[in-house]
Amino acid sequence: MSQDSQVIAEHTSESAHTGHPTPLTYFKVAMVLSIITAIEVGVFYLEFVGWGIIPILVLLSAAKFLLVAMYYMHLKFDDRIFSTMFVAGLVVASGVVLALMALFSFFNS
Amino acid sequence: MAQATITEHGEHEPTTTGLNHRKMLMWAFLGSDCMFFGSLIATYLVYKNKSLAGPIPEDVFSILLTSVSTFVLLMSSMSMVLAYAALTRGRMKTFRIWLASTIIMGATFVGFQVFEFHAFVNHEVVVECDHINPADLTPVELEVSAGCVDGVHEVEKVVGLTPKTNLFGSTFFTLTGFHGAHVTLGLIWLTSLFLLSFKKGMVTPEKNLDVDLAALYWHFVDVVWIIIFTVVYLFGVFPGF
Amino acid sequence: MTTVAFPIPRPKHPTGVWNWITTIDHKKIGVLYGVTAFLLFLTGGLEALLIRIQLASPGHEFVSPEVYNQLFTMHGTTMIFLAIMPLSAAFFNFVVPLQIGARDVAFPRLNAFSYWTFLSGAIILKLSWFLGGATNAGWFGYAPLTSMSQNPGTGIDFWIISLQVLGVASLAASFNFIVTIINMRAPGMSFMRLPLFTWMTFLTAILVVLAFPVITVALIELYFDRAFGMNFFNVINGGNPVLWQHLFWVFGHPEVYILILPAMGIVSDIIPTFSKKPLFGYNAIVLAGAIIAFMGWMVWSHHMFTVGLGPIPVTVFTLTTMAIAVPTGVKIFNWMGTIWGGSMDLRTPMLFALGFIAMFTIGGISGVMHSMASSDAQQQDTYFIVAHIHYVLFGGAIFAILAGIYYWFPKITGRMYNETLGKLNFWVTFIGFNIAFFPQHFLGMDGMPRRIYTYSEGMGWDLWNMVSTIGALILGAGMLLFMHNIVRSWRKGELADGDPWDGRTLEWSIPSPPPEYNFAEIPTVYDRDDWWAKKRGNVKHGVPVSGGSGEEEHSIHMPQPSYWPLVVALGICIIGYGLVYSYTVATVGTIIGVIGVYAWSFEPVNDPEDEDDAAH
C-alpha cells in the first residue's frame, strides 16, 4: 500500500481546498468505527450498566450509521437532495417501526 | 440547461439540478429500501420474546463471533471507499486491490452468516447437571435439564433453530437472510465491476459513477447491518429486553 | 476505446408489432398502459356485474359461494391494481414529460420495463381464474384465512406473486418519475410552476416507493408461512394475524391516496382550463396534496377499528382520520373557487370533472362518518363501506380518469371524440353510478354485511339490491357508450389541432399527436400556465427560476428502442409462475432475467447519425 501513503501525503492539502475527504480521513473513520464496535461489545459485558445499555447502544450505533452515511456515502459533501431522500425513508421507516412496537405493547411493562 | 441530447446513460446530459440521474435513482432506491428493512425489523421486534417454545436468542447467539463479522463488514466499507478514491485519482492497480479486498471481506461476512445459520440449525444444548441453577436456564435448557436424573452429569441434545421452529426462527432467518441476499447481490455487482476493470476502457476515472453507485449500495447494506447487529444481537441477549 | 457490447444488435427502426414491443417512447408506453388497463377494467367490471346479478334477489343461485368469494376478491384486486393504478400510469407516462417540457423520462428502458412487468403481473393474476381457482380471501387477504391450512391450492399464491410482480412495476415507474420530475424540467419550470397533474404524480410516486416495500414484506411473510411452514401468522406457534392487518394497511392506506391523488391532479388541470381561470389557491392545493400524502401514513388503523386494538389506538386513529379531511376539504373549496367567476365550458371533460367533485365529496362525507370509531363499529363490514369505497374510487378516481381520457384524447390521437356521445356517456354513467351505489348506503344502515353471496327474503334488503343491480347494468351501458365513442373517434374522428381547449399547460403547445421528440425546441418557462400566458402575449421576461441557457438545438437524438426490458419482464413472469409451481422453473426465469439485465447494461448503441432522420 505504499501507493496509498503517497496518495495520503499528496492529498492531505487537497482536502483543505475542496472539503473532499482524503484516504486518510476514510482510514480514520474506519478506526473510529472499530473502536465504537469494541465499546459496544465491551459495554455489553458490563453488568452494572443495567437498562442504561439501551440508550448507550442506540447512540453508539447511531454514531456509526452517521459516520458511514456522511463520509463513506459522501452525504456531508453532496447536494442536500440525496440526504433528503435517504432521511425521508429513514424517518418513515422509524415511525412505522415505533408505531407497530407501541401497538403490540412492546413498551408496556 | 437545454437538453441537447439524451444519451444512453445520460452521463453528459444536462439536468435541472446538475445532479446525475442514476445517482439520484440510487438514493431514491436506498430511501425506499429503508422501508423494506424497517418492515422486517418491525416484524422481528413485534415478535420479540413471544416465541412459545424452541431456542431463543440467548440460546444461540455468539456475540463474539458476530462482532467479528460486523467488524469485517465495516472494514469492507472502508476498502470500498478507498477503492473509489483510488479510481477517481486514476490509480487503477490500487483500485483493483481495494475492490478485491472489499469482495473478499464481503464474502467472508457471508461465510460467517452461513456458518452461523448452520450452527443455529444444528444447535446443541449442553446442560451440566451438577451446577444448574434453574433461574439461569433458558426454557430450552430447562427442558433438556429434565434429563438430569441420578448419576447423569451432563445432558446433551440437539435443539435446532430453523425458520419453522418458532417466531424467533421465522423472524430472525427472514431478516438476516434478506440482508445476506442484499450482500450477495452486492458481491455479484462488485465482482462484475472487478472483472470488467481488466477490459480496457470499461472502468475508468471518467466513468467513476458506475463504481460510485455500487459503493453507495454496499455502504447501505453495511449500515443496515449496523442496525441489525444492535437491535437483533446486542439487544437480543440482553435479559428482559 | 473498446466496449463490452452484448452481441445481439439493437433494434433499428422497428416497425409494426416489433415497434410496440421494443418501444421506449413514453407516449407509446402510455398508450400501452391505457389500452391494457382499460381492458382489465372491463374484466373487473364483468366480475362486478356477476356479483350484482347474484345479489339482485334473495336466495339467488347464479354463482356458488366459492365462486362468489373469488369474484369479489378479484374484482377488488383488479380494479385497484390492474385498472386505476395503470390507468393513472398511462397519464403519468404520456402527459408528465410533456407538461415539464422534456423529451422523455429519465430512464426510458426502465419505463418500458415497468409496463411489461405490469403486464406480467396482470397475466399472473387473471389467469388464476383458469388455473385451479382465483384468490378468494378478499383483496386485503386477511390471515389466517390465507394460510395453507385454510386455503390450500394455488389461488392465494397467484395473488401473492402477482402483487409482488405488480409492485416491482409500480416501484420502477415511480423511481423513474421521481427522477424525471426533479431532474428533467425545462428551464424556468420551477416546482411551484408545475401543472397540478405533475405535482400530484410526484407525490404519488413518493408514496409508492415508501409504501410498496411494506406490502412486499407482508406478502413475503405470508408466502413463507404457506410455502415453508414459517410462523408469521401461524397462531399455533404464537403468530398474530393482526400483524398482517397492520402491515397490509400501513401499505393500504397510502395506497388509497396513491389511487386518488393523480385523479385530483387531473381534475385540477381540467377545471381551470374549462373555467378559463387560473387554479384558485395553487399553493394551498399543492400544500394540501403534500399534507394528505404525509398524513396518509398516520391513519391506517381506521381499517381495524373493530379488531380490538384498545381505546388509546382507536382514539388516536379517529383523531388523525378526522384531521385528514381538512386538506381534502381545502382542495374541494379551491376547485369551487376556481369555477366561481369563471367562464364555464361544459364539455365532456368538465362534466366528468364536476361529477368527480360531487361524487368524491359524497364519498368523503361517508368517510368522515367512518372516521368516528364508535359509528364505524356499526358501519364496518357493511354495505355502507362498499358505498363509500365506490363513491371515492368510481365516482372519484374513475370519473377523473374518464375526464382525463376525454381531455387528453385529442392530444394522444390527433382526433376529437364525439361531443354528443361524450355527453350521453357522462349522463348514462352518472345516473347508472348513483342508482348502483347510493342505495348501498341504505343497505349498510339496514345491516347488510359485505362479502355475503346471498341473503334471505325477510331481511328487507330485496328492493335496494335489485335497484343497485339495475344501476350497475346502466353503468355498464355507460361504459359501452364510452368505448364506442373512443374507438370510433380514434379511427375516424375529426382531426384535432394542437390546442383544442385553448389550454394552459405545455402539452397544448405542441402538435397532436406529438412528434417523437415532443418539442422542436425546449421551451423556457416564465410563469405558471406559461402556454396560456404566451398565447396572450403576457410573457414575463427575465431570468428563468431554475437552470437553463435556452440554447438552440442543433439536432435531436432520441433514446433508442430495446428488447431487454421485455426480456427481463418475461424472466420475472417465469419466476412468478415458478414460485407457485416449481423452483426449477423459477431458476430458469432468474437466469433469463439476469441475462436480460446484463444485456441491458451492455447494450450497443446504434450510430445516432443513422437514427437522425426526423428531428429539426
Give a summary of the structure in a few sentences:
The complex is a heterotrimer of chains A (109), B (241) and C (616). Chain B is mainly α and 241 residues long. Chain B has helices at residues 21-46, 57-60, 63-88, 92-121, 139-145, 167-196, 208-234, and strands at residues 124-128, 154-158.
Give an overview of the whole structure.
The complex is a heterotrimer of chains A (109), B (241) and C (616). Chain A contains four helices and no strands. Chain A folds into two domains: 75 residues; 31 residues. Chain B starts with 20 loop residues before the first helix and ends in a 7-residue tail after the last helix. Chain B has a domain of 144 residues: Up-down Bundle (Four Helix Bundle (Hemerythrin (Met), subunit A)). In chain B, helix 3 runs antiparallel to helix 4 and helix 3 runs antiparallel to helix 7. A two-stranded antiparallel sheet of chain B has the order 1-2. Chain C is an all-alpha fold and 616 residues long. Chain C folds into two domains: 521 residues, Up-down Bundle (Cytochrome C Oxidase, Chain A), CATH 1.20.210; 42 residues. Chain C is built from 19 helices and no strands. Classes of the chains: A mainly alpha (109), B mainly alpha (241), C mainly alpha (616). Chains B and C meet through helix 1 and helix 6 of B and helix 5, helix 6 and helix 7 of C.
Number of strands of chain B: 2
Instruction: Give the domain tally of chain A.
Output: 2
Order of helices and strands of chain B: HHHHEHEHH
Assembly classification: heterotrimer
Distance between the termini of chain A: 54 Å
Low-confidence stretches of chain B: 1-10
Determine the number of helices of chain B (DSSP H or I, runs of at least 4 residues): 7
* Largest sheet report of chain A: none
* Mean of residue pLDDT values of chain A: 84
